[in-house]
Write a structure and sequence with these properties.
By secondary structure, the protein is mainly alpha-helical. Helix content is 85%, strand content 0%.
């Protein structure tokens, strides 16, 4: 039998796990807002997300209470999810949207940087290669010659 103080500690840890699960769900919602999947991609993305969350929850349960399923496990996770949804989600989600926009700008800048490097380095390199290959036309001998 697990002593009551240890059960309380497990309950609070599961509440923290519920907070984390709800935060991950908010991250997924914001990601879907920017990604805007359509049709089958949406269903596939949802299935992958819930599969990942299921594996995460299973791992969390294994680390916190050796995978034992008791009523307070569901209460702890539910308490964490509900607390996050009521008290934190409204203030965290705008921050996530701003972070998503910033990430989009950084990725667009990185793409422009890579494109610029491509045109600065690769294109002149190809021109030099083509020019040098014009002067050194080496034709391999025909096998029957």
């Amino acid at each position: 039998m697990i002593p009551l103080p240890e059960q309380w500690q497990i309950f609070m840890a599961l509440g923290g796990g519920g907070l984390l699960l709800a935060f991950l769900f908010d991250c997924y919602r914001v990601g879907r807002y920017f990604w805007r999947p359509r049709g089958m991609t949406s269903h596939l993305g949802d299935a992958v997300f819930w599969l990942i969350l299921t594996v995460f929850t299973f791992t969390l349960l294994m680390f916190i209470n050796w995978g034992e399923m008791r009523a307070y496990v569901f209460l702890g996770l539910g308490m964490g999810v509900t607390s996050y949804s009521l008290f934190l989600s409204g203030s965290v989600r705008p921050w996530l949207y701003r972070s998503g926009r910033l990430l989009g700008r950084v990725m667009a800048g990185g793409r422009r940087l890579i494109t610029g490097v491509f045109f600065i380095v690769i294109i002149p390199g190809r021109i030099v290669y083509r020019l040098t290959s014009l002067f050194h036309r080496h034709r391999p001998p025909h096998p029957l010659e």
